[in-house]
Structure formats: C-alpha cells, structure tokens
Design goal:
The complex is a heterodimer of chains A (220) and B (623). In chain A, helix 2 packs parallel to helix 3 and helix 9 crosses helix 10. With 220 residues, chain A is α/β, with parallel strands linked by helices. Chain A folds into two domains: 117 residues, Rossmann fold; 93 residues, Arc Repressor Mutant, subunit A, CATH 1.10.10. Chain A is 58% helix and 12% strand. In chain A, strand 6, helix 4 and strand 7 form a beta-alpha-beta unit. In chain B, strands 1, 3, 4, 6, 9, 10 and 12 form a seven-stranded antiparallel β-sheet that branches. A five-stranded mixed β-sheet of chain B has the order 16-18-19-21-20. Chain B is α+β, with helices and mostly antiparallel strands and 623 residues long. Chain B folds into three domains: 168 residues, Galactose-binding domain-like (Jelly Rolls, Sandwich), CATH 2.60.120; 211 residues, Rhopdopsin 7-helix transmembrane proteins (Up-down Bundle), CATH 1.20.1070; 141 residues, Histidine kinase-like ATPase, C-terminal domain (Heat Shock Protein 90, 2-Layer Sandwich), CATH 3.30.565.10. Chain B is rod-shaped and about 170 Å long. In chain B, helix 7 runs antiparallel to helix 8. The chains are: A alpha/beta (220), B alpha+beta (623).
C-alpha cells in the first residue's frame, strides 16, 4: 500500500484525479486536500510516497507544499499537476523539488501513462524547461562577485552528458530519440533527467539557504 | 681723514681754522674734508651768539650724551678757507648725513639753507641727509664762518634714539662729489623706505581684504594688518612734515607698536592653525594699555617707557615666531625652512636695529637692518600669496572636477530616470497582462478543465480541451516575450514528433540546426504554433496517414514550413473546393494575419501537402 497526497482545489477535478490515481495505484491510500494549509498539515502527519500538487490554490502556491515535502520527506515524489504549461510557473516548482509535471487537461489515458512513467522514474522534460535549466546552470558557472559567500555553496554543476541531453531536449528531440542518438538505453537517459532534476533542486536549495543567511546577516 | 680722491691732484685746498694743523697733511690731497669738531652753544638767538663762549665739541654730537635733557636749539660754528676757489670754478657744498630734527645754515652770517619749519611742529629731517650748496659769491678769500642752527628733541621725548637731537659729522667739498654721496644716502634712507612702504601698503591692503573675506584664512587678514601698520610706521622715515607736534607724533607712533605686535603674533599663531581665547583678548588689551602707560608717563619719559615696551613686544613676536616654527617643524611641513630662514633674518634685523638704537650706532649695517625687516615681510607676503594662489588653483581644479562629476551624475540620473520610467511602464503593462492571464487561468481555465474531465460527451470534452489550449496560447501571446526562432523550432519539433508518435504515425522533421539569429514575436510564435497544431491534428484525425514529414526552411527572409502526409487527402466538396471542416480556413486566416500564406494541396489518395510561408521580418515585428 502506498500513501498518496492529492492537493487540488476544484472538487470535480480532485474527484476525477482521485479515480485516476486509484486506477494507476489500486492499493493506494489517498489523502485529499484543497488548500496549501491543509496539505502542509497532512505532510507533517503522514508519510507520503507520492504527491500530486496543483500550483494555483486559493491560499497560496503548491510550490510551498513541494518544498515542505522535499524538506521533511525527501523520499516522496512530488509531481506538479497544473493547467500552466509555461516554465514561468513550472520552473520554481522543479527548483523546489518537484519530480516532473502533468498538464491537467490532457486525456485520461495520457495522464495515466505519464503518471506511470514518473512513478517508474521517467520524468518528462519539455524543451522550454530544458532551456531554462541550462540557462540556470550557465549563470551559476559564471564567476560570482561575492566570492567569500559563494564558497559556502556546494558547487553543483552538470556533467557533459547531462548538458548534452538537455541540449538535445531543447532542440525538440524526444527522450527515446536522444537515447538512440547517444546509443544509450531509455533507462540511462531517464537517469540523466532524474539527475538533472535533483541537481536543480540541490543547487536551488543551497542558493536559497545562502540567501536566507545573507538576509539574516543583514537583518540583524 | 679723507674719504676719496687719491688720484686727483690737490685741486682744492680747504683750510679749516680749527683743524688747521691736524688736517694739514691730509688736506693737500683731499677733495672733500670731513669735519669732526665744531664750536657749539645752546641758544635760541637769531644768529650765532658770538658774545657767549662756545666750547669745541666733537662731531657727531649726540645731545643725549653731550647735553642730556636739552631740546636745543644749538648753534654750531666752524670756519674754513677756500683759496683759489674762483679760479677752479667749482661749486662747493656742505653735506650733513644726519641732523635731528631740523637745521638752518648760515654762511658768513647769510642764511643759505633751511630744512623747513624750525618750531613745533618741527620738520622731521632725521632720516634726510642734507646737501647744501655754498654759494661761491658768499665765500670770501679769507676765513669763512659756517653757522648751523639745529633744533631737536631730548632723547627722553622721542621713542627712538634715531630721532633724538644731534648733529653728525660734516663734510665739505665739491658739490659734484657730495651730490653722489647724498643721492646714495637719500636712496637708502628715503627712497627705499618709501618703496617698501608703498609695497607693504598695497600688498597688506590686498591681503587684509582677502583674509577678511575668507574667515578661514584669518592669518592673511592679520598679515595684511601687520603690513599696513608697518607701512605706516615706516612712513616716519620719509614723511617730514606732520601737522602735529613731536610729542603727539611720537605717541601715535608708539601706540602703533602693540597693534603691530598683535597682528604679527596672531598672524603667526593662526598661520600655525592655533587659536587661543586668552591671546584673542590679551592682545587688544595690551594695545589699549600701552598708550595709557605712555600717557601716564608723560612726554618727558617717553623714551624709557617706549624702550621697555619695545623689548616686551619684541619678545612676544619672537615667542610667536618660535611657536610657529616649532609646530611647522613637528608637522614636517615643507614650508618650514623658507619660513624659518625669513623669520630668522627678520629677527636678526630687529636685533641689529635694537642694538643700534641702544648703543647709538649709525651706518650702513643699521640701515640695511632697517630695510631688511620690511623686505622680509614682503617676501613672506609673496609666499603667502603664492600659497593662496596654489590653493585657489587647487580649488578651481577640484571645482572643475566636481562640476564634471555633477554633470556626469546628472546625465546618469537623467538616463536612469528615463530608463526607470520606461521600465515602470513596461512593468505596469507586464503586471496587468499577468493579472489578466492569471484571471483567465484561474477562472476560465478551471471551468474549461472541469468540462474537459466531467463531460460525458467526448466531443464536448475535446472542444473544451481545445478551448483551454487556445486560451493558453492567447495568454502566451498576451504576456509572452519574443521567442528565439531556434527555440520555437525546438518546441514545435517536440510537440509534433511526440503527438505523431503517440498516434502511431512515423514522423520526420527537418529544420536548420545551426544558430538562427531571428526571433519571433510572442504572437507570431503562438499563431504559428496553432497552425502547426491544427495541421498535425488533421493528419492524426483525418488523413489515415502512416508517415508525416515536416520541413522548415529559411530563405530570403521567409520561413517556409511544409507538412506532407501519405494519407487519404482531403475530400472535395461538391463545388470542387477542399473541405472546410478541416480547419483549413482558420489556418489560412492566421497565416494572413502574419502577412504570410497557407497553401493546401491535396487529392484523394495522394496525401496532403500544407505549405506555410511566413515573412520573418514581419513575423518578428508584429507584436
């Protein structure tokens, strides 16, 4: 039996998603929430294996729930389920530790397939997100003006292979195509993508911690 | 005691009745004769009192030594012969280097010269050497008598020994020789002090005004006051006729001295950047007390009182100078050595002058010392002006620099302001767009989504899903930023290939892979995405194709996208046109909006080819 958190404010959609999840994971225990506040309460009480998190909620953003899960339950797979397909909305959630995203309006079968893939460790990656990730790491690799404090940040950088994968995703190649081009197995490519997500999260968290420290120093 | 003229013969033979024997050997060669003794008698008679006994006195005759307390007048008489004078045709003259305070000269009982007013206020001739022509017509072949009436003041009644009554040694000789000597002496005792006075007065006034205007440079004002004061004191050397009695003139002159000391002490202290309240009070107080003590002592005791003050004031000035030099030395200022040199020279000059007064020394050294002090002051003044000039120059430079910085800063601020204003407009617009987009997503999006997943009708679900996608694209067209063409191609490829792949249709995509510099406006990107999406939907839904190729080419500023499938083709309507139900109209309409065109070629069984041509420049411009 697995514990699943479902955070969605629209009741119909929540019910629909719930039935969909039950179809993918028949023995799942689903805890439903409609607000960020409720979800955070559940996170502090129950250990989840999977979390489906909507972003735009009445009392805040699902990104906070993703971050809380990453903080307290690092084993949980957080998946963003949203109607926003733009990286402006998705990228912060991925930085906070989301492991992939699903667009809500897609057909049931498509969502089921994506959910299965994610739970098997094959998160999706769109060209625009790939470009955003590349830009993020490219900016980080530049020499920082605050050299003293940047020493405190664990240096996270992408390997050449990971960059190569990102580059190809950005050009519009699908993951299986990239596997063929680099003569790598589908699992290996999926591992690269997972690794990219993880590094994005680790780097972002370090950055956030540093930022908090800096604010703390100045706020004293 | 001849002074000059070894090289000429005995052109002039002067026989002095009283020194006849003593000088006899020298006279043979002398051109001029110095006379070191004369008969003297104190009398106010209109002529030499022949009836009274006139003892012989040495010249120079200092009254303070020979007749202490006497104010004259004193008659001096000497006699001389000048044989052969007429034949030589030379003009004779009497030269008196120093006579104080004034004199009248009689030759054989005839008045031949008067130095000016003989009664109070007496004309002041103490610093004016006298050259008196001896008219040849009055000189007899025998013994001639020369009477000199001198009026003066006892030492006690004057502030300086230089102005105490007395007569120096006399010199008789050819006027041409003595005139040179006289001119030299006048230059030294009159012209130089005059020039120095004028210089000090001009420079001092200028510096006083300069220091007065700028209170931070108060030392300049004090120096200016010192210079002007000194110029006034110095004027006593060459101003002969004052409209006041000797007692008043001497008193006023003495009253000047504490003022000068005040100015010099304050100048030195302020110059060393030191200021003390007690000194600020004490110096003016002293300037008031000193005249009071002089008044109390009375004109009869002026000299001792003045001497006492003279020493006291000089010591104050010296102390201030020492203090100034000490601070300068400790501060390791570069100005130390020149200023130290100047101050030492001025001090030495003062000392010499003081000694000269004290011991009655006259001569070149004393005159040089007298001149040296004001010259030092002029030099110090020039140095101060130089410093001031440099400071002014530095101030000008820094002002110019500052002005430049201000201009730069102003330009930067203006630039920033413009940028900020633009940015603000952009930001407000952006925020408004984002608000509209968020509203659309939250409200319309949520409702459409609910329809998508709750409708029983597949057709309605599909329509709602398409509406949602449309909405999303619209929002993106509304809020989106320009898209790099290479990125747009990546997005399109990902969508097209994955959709065709999911539908089991083999997809082939070809597009330029190198860096493309072009960008698409958000709207052009969104419209093109819609056209492509529609085309691919048609392939998936209607064509029954197993293969679909898409190619994108950039040529001559146009982008051409060709979608080609191997499906059934679009069936003809009855009127021979292609079926409108396949979204062809909207694809064409959108292409037209982007100033492009969309051509569809199809025949039953031959598949379909859609050619979309978009002008890139237009596509990038359309907002």
């Amino acid at each position: 039996m697995i514990n699943i958190l479902l955070l969605e404010d629209l009741p119909e959609i929540r019910a629909w998603l719930s039935s969909l999840v039950m179809q993918v994971f028949p023995d799942a225990q689903i805890a439903e929430a409609a607000r960020v506040h409720d979800a955070l309460g559940l996170v502090s009480a129950i250990k989840f294996d999977l979390a489906l998190v909507d972003l735009g909620l009445p009392d805040g953003s699902g990104v906070d729930v993703v971050a809380a899960l990453r903080e307290h339950q690092p084993e949980t797979q957080s998946v963003v389920v949203t109607i926003h397909d733009d990286d402006e909305h998705l990228f912060p959630a991925l930085q906070a530790g989301a492991f992939g995203y699903i667009l809500k309006e897609q057909a049931r079968e498509l969502i089921i397939e994506q959910l299965q893939r994610i739970s098997q460790g094959e998160p999706p990656l769109s060209p625009s997100i790939a470009r955003r990730v590349m830009a993020y790491f490219a900016a980080k690799s530049k020499p920082q003006p605050m050299s003293a404090s940047s020493a405190a940040v664990p240096h996270v950088s992408l390997t050449d292979r990971e960059t190569e994968v990102l580059l190809r995703v950005a050009k519009g190649y699908t993951l299986p195509e990239i596997g063929q081009q680099l003569t790598l197995s589908r699992h290996t490519i999926a591992d690269y993508v997972k690794q990219i997500y993880r590094k994005l999260n680790v780097s972002s968290r370090a950055e956030a911690a540093l930022e908090a420290q800096r604010l703390g120093l100045f706020g004293r | 005691m001849s002074r000059s003229g070894w090289y000429h013969g005995p052109h002039l033979l002067l026989c002095l009745g009283l020194l006849w024997l003593a000088c006899a050997s020298a006279l043979a060669q002398a051109q001029t004769v110095k006379i070191h003794a004369a008969q003297a008698v104190e009398s106010d008679s209109p002529g030499f009192p022949a009836d009274r006994s006139a003892p012989l006195v040495d010249l120079p005759d200092d009254w303070s030594a020979s007749r202490p307390g006497s104010n004259g007048p004193v008659w001096y008489r000497l006699t001389f012969t000048a044989p052969g004078l007429r034949e030589k045709g030379e003009l004779l003259a009497l030269y008196i280097e120093h006579v104080c305070t004034n004199l009248q000269v009689y030759l054989n009982g005839q008045l031949i010269h008067s130095g000016g007013q003989m009664s109070e206020p007496i004309t002041q001739n103490c610093n004016h050497p006298q050259l008196i022509s001896l008219p040849a017509g009055l000189i007899g072949p025998g013994l001639n008598s020369l009477d000199i009436k001198v009026v003066g003041h006892a030492l006690a009644r004057v502030a300086s020994a230089h102005r105490a009554g007395g007569l120096s040694a006399l010199e008789i000789g050819p006027k041409s020789v003595l005139a040179d000597k006289h001119a030299q002496q006048v230059a030294l005792t009159v012209a130089v002090p005059q020039a120095v006075s004028a210089t000090l007065l001009l420079m001092g006034s200028f510096m006083f005004v300069l220091g007065w205007m700028n209170r931070r440079e108060s030392h300049l004002a004090y120096f200016g006051a010192l210079s002007v004061g000194w110029a006034i004191v110095e004027s006593r050397f060459w101003l002969r006729n004052l409209p006041v009695d000797n007692a008043v003139a001497e008193f006023l002159l003495c009253a000047m001295l504490p003022l000068l000391t005040w100015a010099s002490v304050q100048f030195l202290l302020r110059y060393a950047q030191y200021r003390h309240r007690w000194i600020d009070i004490a110096m003016p107080l002293q300037a008031a007390v000193m005249p009071a003590t002089l008044l109390l002592a009375g004109p009869e005791r002026l000299y001792p009182m003045a001497s006492f003050w003279y020493v006291l004031l000089a010591l104050q000035a010296l102390a201030a100078a020492a203090f100034y030099l000490r601070t300068q030395y400790h501060a390791r200022r570069r100005a130390f050595w020149p200023m130290a040199l100047l101050l030492c020279l001025a001090t030495a000059a003062l000392a010499v002058e003081y000694a000269a007064q004290k011991f009655g020394i006259r001569g070149l050294l004393m005159q040089l010392a007298q001149t040296a002090t004001p010259v030092m002051m002029v030099l110090v003044g020039l140095r101060l002006l130089q410093q001031q000039g440099r400071a002014l120059q530095a101030a000008e430079e820094s002002k110019a620099h500052l002005e430049m910085r201000i201009r730069e800063a102003t330009a930067e601020i203006e630039h920033n302001f413009t940028q900020l204003a633009e940015l603000r407009v952009e930001k407000v617009t952006e925020r408004e767009r984002k608000r509209i987009a968020a509203d659309l997503h939250d409200d319309l999006g949520a409702k459409l989504l609910t329809i998508v997943h709750t409708s029983d009708s597949e057709r309605i679900s599909t329509l709602a899903r398409e509406a949602l996608e449309e909405m999303r694209l619209s929002v993106r067209g509304l809020t989106g930023k320009p898209v790099q063409l290479i990125d747009a191609l990546g997005d399109w490829r990902a969508e097209v290939v994955s959709r065709l792949g999911q539908a089991g249709i083999e997809a082939a995509w070809s597009a330029p892979a190198e860096d493309l510099p072009q960008t698409l406006s958000a709207r052009a990107f969104v419209q093109t995405t819609r056209i492509l999406r529609e085309a691919v939907s048609n392939v998936i839904k209607h064509s029954g194709a197993t293969h679909c190729s898409l190619s994108c080419d950039i040529a001559d500023g146009d982008m051409q996208i060709v979608v080609r499938d191997n499906g059934n083709g679009i069936p003809m309507e009855l009127d021979g046109r292609l079926d409108r139900g396949h979204g062809m109209a909207s694809m064409k309409h959108r292409a037209k909006q982007l100033q492009g065109q969309c051509l569809v070629e199809s025949g039953p069984g031959y598949g379909t080819v859609i050619r979309l041509t978009l002008p890139l420049t237009r596509a990038t411009e359309v907002a």
